[in-house]
Amino acid sequence: MLSSRDEIRRNYCAAWRKARAGEPLDSGERRIAEVIGEHPEYQALIESGAAAIEAEFPPEAGATNPFLHMGLHIALREQVAIDRPSGIRAVFHTLAARDTPHAAEHIMMECLAEALWLTQREGQPADERAYLAALRRRANPE
Fold this sequence. Notes:
- This protein is mostly helical.
- The chain has two domains: 1-55, no CATH class; 58-142, no CATH class.
- It is built from eight helices and no strands.
- It has helices spanning 5-21, 27-37, 40-47, 50-54, 66-82, 88-98, 101-122, 128-139.
- Helix 1 crosses helix 2 (27-37) and helix 2 (27-37) crosses helix 5.
- The radius of gyration is 16 Å and the shape is globular.
C-alpha cells in the first residue's frame, strides 16, 4: 500500500528525530536520516514537525520540494544497490569518480525525475532502457 504524503513526511521527521537523539534506527530510517544529514538546508524544516508535514512547495513558485528531492536520492541509492536497471551501478561509479557520490546522484536525479514525469504523462510503465540510455549519456557525453 502506498503511503500518504503526510505519512511519508512524518516518517522523515521521526527518522531524523530518532537519529539526532541517538536512538536505534531500522534500515529505512537509517537511509532517510543519512540523506537528511547530507542536506543541512532542509534540516530546520524537518525539525519543524507539523510545519514540515503541512508545507507546500509549488513548482510555479520555483520551490523545490525537499521530500521529493531526498526521496529521489533514496530511490537512486536503492537502484544502484541492486543494479536495476542493470548497468546503473557502473554509471553511478563513473559519475562519482568525477566528483562525489552526492554530486553523481544529483546528475542522475535529473534523469530519474524525467523518466518518472514521462511515465506519469504517458500513463505507461517506466521505460528502463530509455532511462538507462539517458543516464549513460550523462556519464559519457560525446
